[in-house]
């Protein structure tokens, strides 16, 4: 498959897959390993507050089954509800990963909806960019907020499709399209994907990638779902590059009329 279809460039580095996956919610580390391999993902997100990557030397480490020699580990600030906590958490992740600059910023508004707190997200993004981080940022599907984050210096914009873990798919494709049209950095759907068709639609709209965790880890067969998501992202990207036919309110014959035999 061509690099045009599979390659995703973020902060100057090109990755082999446009599917990014999380590392939480699996039955055990072995299932994590198998599903991650099946997904074909290059970038694996890690919630620093919830997953052990060295914080506890006496407990099994995620890095034993998802080694940094094979994957790019993306520390994220899941579980943070203000800018200060998010910044501290990602600074801790940088230390644990030997100065790794790439991070995923996530500042939540409340424990029920897990919707992003945009004022705190903007504040944290500004601090992290000034501190030398390459910030990928979870945000609302608001084109104005997305543009502000890009202007601050974030290297990727990650609007939610719908609420985290909801499986509702893309509820507002029009806002997402507006964000894609104006962006000069990669746009990746983050949160709300439920099945393969959701991932394909995101890519057909022109997203540069998709990040997911619950849709794979919560499936009845996570490994098979991981493979399905891999194929969906690739198919959606190829369809976007191919260019779909316009939607019409009238029929259009698939066979030409010119030169027909009466």
Largest sheet: 5 strands, parallel
User: Which band does the percent of strand residues land in?
Assistant: 15-25%
What is the typical, i.e. mean, pLDDT? 91
How do the SSEs run, as a string of H and E?
Answer: HEEEHEEHEHEHEHEHEHH
Low-confidence stretches: none
Continuous helix count: 9
Keywords:
single chain, 262 residues, alpha/beta, 5-stranded parallel sheet, 3-stranded parallel sheet, 10 strands
Give an account of the 3D structure.
The protein is globular and about 80 Å long. Helix 3 packs across helix 4, helix 5 packs parallel to helix 6 (173-182) and helix 7 runs parallel beside helix 9 (222-242). The longest helix has 21 residues, at 222-242. The protein is 37% helix and 16% strand. It has a five-stranded parallel beta sheet with strand order 5-4-3-10-9. A three-stranded parallel beta sheet has the order 6-7-8. It has 262 residues and is of the alpha/beta class. Helix 2 (29-39) links the parallel strand 3 (19-22) and strand 4. The protein is built from nine helices and ten strands.
């Amino acid at each position: 498959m061509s690099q045009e279809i599979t390659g995703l460039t973020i902060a100057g580095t090109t990755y082999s897959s446009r599917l990014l996956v999380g590392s939480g919610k699996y039955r055990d580390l072995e299932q994590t390993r198998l599903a991650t391999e099946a997904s074909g993902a290059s970038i694996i997100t890690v919630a620093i507050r919830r997953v052990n990557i060295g914080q506890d030397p006496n407990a099994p480490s995620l890095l034993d089954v998802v080694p940094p020699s094979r994957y790019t580990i993306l520390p994220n600030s899941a579980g943070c509800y203000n800018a200060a906590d998010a910044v501290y958490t990602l600074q801790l992740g940088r230390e644990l990963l030997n100065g790794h600059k790439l991070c995923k910023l996530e500042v939540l508004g409340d424990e029920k909806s897990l919707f992003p707190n945009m004022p705190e997200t903007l504040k944290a993004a500004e601090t992290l960019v000034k501190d030398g981080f390459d910030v990928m940022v979870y945000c609302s599907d608001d084109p104005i907020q997305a543009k502000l984050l890009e202007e601050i210096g974030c290297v990727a914009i990650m609007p939610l499709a719908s609420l985290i873990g909801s499986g509702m798919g893309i509820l507002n494709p029009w806002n997402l399209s507006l964000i894609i049209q104006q962006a000069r950095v990669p746009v990746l759907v983050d949160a709300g994907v439920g099945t393969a068709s959701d991932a394909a639609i995101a890519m057909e709209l022109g997203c540069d990638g998709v990040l997911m965790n619950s849709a794979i880890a919560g499936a009845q067969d996570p490994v098979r779902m991981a493979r399905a998501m891999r194929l969906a992202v690739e198919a959606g990207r190829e369809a976007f590059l191919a260019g779909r036919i316009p939607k019409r309110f009238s029929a259009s014959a698939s066979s030409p009329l010119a030169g027909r035999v009466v």
